[in-house]
Structure formats: structure tokens, C-alpha cells
């Protein structure tokens, strides 16, 4: 097993007033040549958006963009005709494909929101842009993985144009949970959304992350109640 650790305090950051962001990988004004991507996972941003805050309309292409609200709700609108409010418990995916324009704004004028946004390089380039979102039951991820994004229909997640999976879980203190790759040779970027866990004798706390590769399975033990996000991605750009 090969691991790379990202402590929460070592992430990049930016404060634009209406937006306070933490970057797990180089993004915008934050550049770190040692933290550019994990396999085909290019972006993982931890965004805090003030009431009334908004990203104006801007373009994307050839990227799979996943948004996971952790608190509050965000309003999305794009040039495919996709539009909706994404709240806690929801997951959204947008295949930017050959090109799309979209905007995102806090659905509240007064209350802040917090979300993860992740970008994954696509398997097939220049596909027709598409948008989808779904509400997932928070009860269905207690002490087990809930797959929210996957190319495999049987997983029950939103479809992604890549051999990648996103899974969420809430692990109770003292419990152990294992993760097994769906695709041989993939790596997993594991983020502790909240709580404390141990992976391969490595202790991780809230917002810490660990990239795990060169193994197809690993176990996690929660030392206190914990919420986790696992992002399984190909490691080789030639796949």
C-alpha cells in the first residue's frame, strides 16, 4: 500500500470575503507542484460561501464535476438547461464534455453554505454535456458505503464518464469499515469530513485526507463518530 497524507492545516486557502475556500490540490491562486492531482482526481475544494454569494456564469469543458453540499443549499444553472437547488443529502454531477457554461449561487441570502466540489478527468472527451442530481438517504450510509457516483448502474449512484466511484459513509465510534476497489489498479482519495479515524496505523482527523494506491482494499477504524468521503479514481492517465 502506498499512501500520501494531506493534513487539513496544510491545504491551500483563499479568502474572497463571500467565499472562503480550502484547496486539497493546486487551484486558482494556490499553486503547489507537489499537490497537483491524485490520479485522475484534479480538484477537491472545500468551499464556504456566505449568504448571497455566487459564482457568476463561467465555462468548463472535458471535466466531470461533482458537487456535494455539507450544509445549506446551492442553486445551479447551466447552458444544457440543467437547473436546480442542491442541498445536504443531495449530490450533483455535471459532465462538461465539449463545453458548458454554468453559474452557482447560495440559495439563501443570509445563511452560509459549505460544500465539496471535485473535478475528475473524463474517460471519453468531448461528449455531449449533461447534468444530473439526486437525493440520497443519510440513513443508508451508516456503517456502510453509499455509492453516490459510479459508472456501474448496480451501485445506484449518478453516472460518471470515468471508471471512478464516489462513496459516503457515517461510521460509528469503535466500528471498522473496509473499502474494496471496483476497478483494479485504481487509487482512493479518502477525506475525513468529520471525526477521527485510523487507516493503516495513520491517524486522521476532521478534513484530513489520505491518498491510497497500490492496493485494492483497505480498512478504516473510527476512534470517534466519523463521516467519510472515498473517491476511487484511475491512477494512470493512459487508461
Summarize the structure in words.
It is a single chain. With 239 residues, this protein is an all-beta fold. It has 2 domains: 11-135, Jelly Rolls (Sandwich); 138-233, Sandwich (Jelly Rolls), CATH 2.60.120. It has strands at 2-6, 12-15, 19-23, 41-49, 54-60, 64-71, 73-78, 83-87, 90-95, 100-106, 113-120, 130-135, 146-149, 165-171, 176-180, 187-194, 197-199, 202-204, 209-213, 217-222, 226-233. Strands 2-3-4-11-6-9-12 form a 7-stranded antiparallel sheet, with no helix packed on it. The two termini are 20 Å apart. The mean pLDDT is 96.
Q: What's a quick, concise take on this entry?
A:
The protein has 239 residues and is mostly beta strands.
Provide the fold topology.
Layout: E1 2-6, E2 12-15, E3 19-23, E4 41-49, E5 54-60, E6 64-71, E7 73-78, E8 83-87, E9 90-95, E10 100-106, E11 113-120, E12 130-135, E13 146-149, E14 165-171, E15 176-180, E16 187-194, E17 197-199, E18 202-204, E19 209-213, E20 217-222, E21 226-233
Antiparallel strand pairs: 1-19, 2-3, 3-4, 4-11, 5-10, 6-9, 6-11, 7-8, 7-10, 9-12, 13-14, 14-21, 15-20, 16-19, 16-21, 17-18, 17-20
